[in-house]
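Q: Got a minute? One more chain.
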Amino acid sequence: MREVVFPTTPDNDFSAWYLKSNQTGVSTEFVMVLKRLKLSTGGSDGKETEGKLDFYAQTFAKNGDKYQFLYKKDTVFTFYDKEVSELMVKNISSIFSVFIKKSYSLNPVRNSVSFNELGDYSNYVNNNYAALKEGQLKDGIYLDYISFFNQTPEPGSYTFELNNKGDITRAVKEENGKKTKIPAHKMFAYVENGKAHKMTFSGFLDLDKDEHGFYITANHGHLFPVQSNSTYGMFGLIGGIAGAIEQGARQKKMKNGDVGKVYIDSLTGEYDFPDE
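A: Always. Here it is, folded:
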């Protein structure tokens, strides 16, 4: 067994840990809300024991007397080791380091809340996003998840250009003799006749809504590329072609697997697999 405690308070201990490796004097105050940090052990095969680290935190940037959301992570890390308790404890600082580094790479969202609203920010956002409150979605092009949930499409009237397979390649707007083109891969989603379609690794997929939020019906194969097999690199051009064929076959196999509802996190725009 390993004991995980804060020697004084989470605020003091995290600040002291952070300042050991980071300079003071920056103009923006960084706030982290730690909602859950729970460690547990599970089954064992006699050689290794399973351990789970349940982690949920949010980060905000202070702007005057208001706070702007930066990032959120709500996940369970799974470990397998003979000394799994010790392994999990050693990785706590790494998990927080990666989480904070990711937060600093992002720009804060425009919505501002008071300090008292930080603890229940998820409910605040879901209760104020137009896409979650209103029944009819606005037609148009959305470049990011924030504009989609706020229902603020790109201004103007766009038409779609298709390839010979019927897939959307870009959206085009012409005003005052000037053309504006938005490639499909730069869109978060588009809405046509009130129906939303989300841009994914596999192209545009239908974006539906239920009582839990917006979701697409897919699996990992539809949303993420399989990892290439590096062993083909040593075979030159022929090996590269063989590697692409093998990778394509594995991608197809993944897509043929079971599909389910994959939700779009309203705070980050990331995919949320409810069964994982």
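A: Residues 230-243 have pLDDT under 50 and may be disordered.
Q: Perfect, thanks.
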